[in-house]
Amino acid sequence: MVRQRVRLTLHVTGSFLKYFALAYIFPLCAAIYYGEANWHIYLYALLLTLGVGLILEFGLRTAREIERADGFTIVAFSWLLVTVLGSLPYVFLGLGFLDAFFEAMSGFTTTGASILQVVEALPKSALLWRSLTNWLGGMGVIALFVAILPRLGVGGSQLFDREFPSPLPERLRPRFSTTARLLWTIYTGFTAAQIGLLYFWARLPLFDSICISFSTLSTGGFAPTTASIGAYASPLAEYIIMAFMFIGGMSFIVHYHALRGHWKALKDDEFRLYVIIIAAAILLLILSQGFSSYRKEMFQAISIMTTTGFVTADFGSWHSSARIVLLALMFVGACGGSTAGGIKVVRILTLMKHTRVMMRKAISPSAMIPLKYNRKPLPDGIVRDIISFVFLYILVAVAASVVLGFLGLDLETSISAVAATLGNVGPGLGSVGPIANYALLPGAAKVILIICMWLGRLELFTVFMIFSPHFWKG
User: Are 396 and 455 in contact (CB under 8 A)?
Assistant: First the structure.
C-alpha cells in the first residue's frame, strides 16, 4: 500500500512538474527583452524542472486511480517539489538554498515574507518571477492542473479539495475541472482589469502594474520595490489596490454569482461579517492613530485582513492598540474560498453562532436549536471540523511561537512572525516588521516559518495527515 501510494504520488507530481516548467518561459522572455546577461538561468531551471517531471512521470507509471487518501500526499509533496524547483532562479542568482527556498515558499504560499533586504537589486526577470509565484500559488498550481488536465477524472476532485479547502462544501459546477476553469477565468479577468487600471488610470509603469496585480488578487504581497506600495506615493494606485485586495479576500463563489447578476450573493452571512470586521478595524486604527492618516490605516487594515501584506506605512511603530488590532487581523484572515490565508471569517462566524446556540441550550437543555448559515442548518460534522481546525491552528501557532522564543526571538517578533507566516500574511511586527524582513533570523527559525507557510497554505490537515502512521496503514 505504502509503495503504491508513493509511486502514484511521484507519478502525478511528475506530470504536474512537466507543465509547471512552462512557467519559466515568462521570466525567460522578460530577461531577453530587458537584455539581462543571466537570461540562461531560466532556461536551465526550465530544463531541469522538465527533466525531473518527465523522469517521475514516465519512470513511475502506474494504473492505480487517485483515491481520497492519495490527494493528501500528492498535494503536500507537489507543493514541496514545486517550491524546491521554483527556488532555482534565486539559487542561480547567488542566494543560499535556505534563503532561496524561504523566498520561493513565501511566494507560492502567497505569504509575501521576504529575506531580500533590497528588492530592487534583483533583475526585472526575477522580480517578475517573484510576483508570478504569488499569482500561481493564489488560486493554486494544482487547481490549474486540474483545470487543464481532464484525464485526472474523478481524482481531480481529491486534489482540488486538498489544495483549495473550504470550510463549507460549496462548488460552482458538479465537475471539479469545470469549477477550476471557472475560478481561474474569474481570477485572470480580475488580474487583467487591475493591470489596466494601474497602468492607464494610475499611470504606474507597465512592469510594476503587472507585478503588483499578480500579487494583489493572489493576496500575495510581493512588490517590485523594497518600500512596497508606499514607494509609489500614489493615492489613486492605493485605492485601486485596496479595492482589488478586498476582492481577493472575498469568496470566489460570491464573485461567480455576483458576476452573473445574482446580487443576493452579497447578502451571504460570511461576506457581511467580512465587511463589518474590516470597517471596525479601520475605525479602531483611526481612533488609535488619528484621522489625518486615514488612508494609511484603511490600506493596512485591508492589506492585513486579506493577508496580502502590502505596506504603505511603518505600522510597526504605531501605537500598541493599533498593533494589537493588526495582529488580531493576521489570525482572522479573509473569507473561505478566497486566495487569503488565516483562520477565515466563515470559521469565526460558525464559532460565534455555535457559542450562541450553546448558551441558549444552557438555559433550555432539551431544546432543539439548529445552527444555521445563510438560513440553512449546518451539519454537525462541519461544525466539529471547524472546531478541530481552529484548535489545531492555535496549537500550532503557540508551539511555533514558543520554539522561536527558545531560538532567541523576542515575544512580539515570535508571535507576529508565526501569525504572519501561518496566516500567509507577510510582514509581522518587531524584528520582522514592515520596514524589516526575515533575512537576519536564525536558520532554524526560517525552517520553522517555512513549515508554517506550508501548513497555512494547505490548511493544516493536508500536511498533518501525511505524518500520521494510521494514514499510511489505511
Answer: yes
Question: Above 50 in pLDDT, residue 155?
Answer: no
pLDDT at 151 over 60: no
Q: At what angle do helices 2-20 and 40-59 cross, to 10 degrees?
A: 150
Give the total residue count for the chain: 474
Q: What is the pLDDT of residues 72-113, one digit of tens each?
A: 788 888 889 999 999 999 999 999 999 999 999 999 999 999
Q: Which of 88, 132, 116 is nearest to 225 (CA)?
A: 116
Distance CA 469, CA 346 (A): 31
Nearest to 308 by CA among 394, 251, 244: 244
According to the model, what pLDDT value does residue 263 have?
81
Three cell numbers written together for 182? 471557472
Q: Where are the domains of the chain?
A: 382-473
The model's pTM? 0.92
Among 448, 246, 418, 463, smallest CA distance to 340 is for: 246
- Per-residue model confidence as pLDDT tens digits over 425-435: 999 999 999 98
CA-CA distance, 228 to 226, in Å (whole number)? 5
HEC profile for the chain?
CHHHHHHHHHHHHHHHHHHHHHHHHHHHHHHHHCCCCCCHHHHHHHHHHHHHHHHHHHHCCCCCCCCHHHHHHHHHHHHHHHHHHHCHHHHHCCCCHHHHHHHHHHHHCCCCCCCCCCHHHCCHHHHHHHHHHHHHHHHCHHHHHHHHCHHHCCHHHHHHHHHCCCCCCCCCCCCHHHHHHHHHHHHHHHHHHHHHHHHHHCCCCHHHHHHHHHHHCCCCCCCCCCCHHHHHCCHHHHHHHHHHHHHHCCCHHHHHHHHCCCHHHHHCHHHHHHHHHHHHHHHHHHHHHCHHHHHHHHHHHHHHHCCCCCCCCCHHHCCHHHHHHHHHHHHHCCCCCCCCCCCCHHHHHHHHHHHHHHHHHHHCCCCCCCCEECCEECCHHHHHHHHHHHHHHHHHHHHHHHHHHHCCCCHHHHHHHHHHHHCCCCCCCHHHCCCCCCCCCCHHHHHHHHHHHHHHHCCCHHHHHCCCHHHHHC
Residue pLDDT, tens place only, 336-360: 888 898 999 999 999 998 888 888 8
Q: What is the pLDDT of residues 248-292, one digit of tens each?
A: 999 888 888 888 888 887 888 899 999 999 999 999 999 999 998
